[in-house]
Amino acid sequence: MRRPTTEDLLRELAHTGQLVIPASRGALLLLLALTLPVGAGLSVLAWWMVYGTLRQPDADVVLLLVLNLRLWAVVVGAVACLLLAPWAVVRRWRQREVLVVTPVGLAEHRRGDARPVATLGWHEIDEVLFQRSPAARPPSPRQVTYRFTPAAAQRRGITTPEGLVSVWTAYELPRRDLYRLLRAAHERYRGVG
Question: What are the TM regions of this chain, as residue ranges (predicted)?
Fold first, then answer.
């Protein structure tokens, strides 16, 4: 099955009045696939550190374990990877977040919410960009970023330099295609609403 082009998506938007882009479940599964082995490795490392400490002759073992900051850092990492990450993935999976693109603007919805989580009119966006985060190091992936108009940035309380806000949710539409769609929709519908 071929991936729809930007023109196909814009035609669907013009025909139906909205375009629904669901959050990527593959990105959530990738996160889970990365965090579980890391958590298991950290658990083995923590066990190895405790076992090594218990084998110390003539030492106050309890004090050594309590004061070992590396052990506590490893335990916190293991808990985050084995408990918090799966909980967050299941929570995001159940919410079924979607991005709704309309001629008036964008809306982010979650399952079970009657109202959108966030709405954004095309007139509030000065420009849609595809760039690396200004705060991130060069190997970071490019993100779809909105540059708000000065009035919209002030009204929404955005304090980032130049009124930039990145889209961090991974949607089923690849980032580059999402950028092309949002840029084209912004150019076409900016004066609407």
Answer: 28-51, 71-90
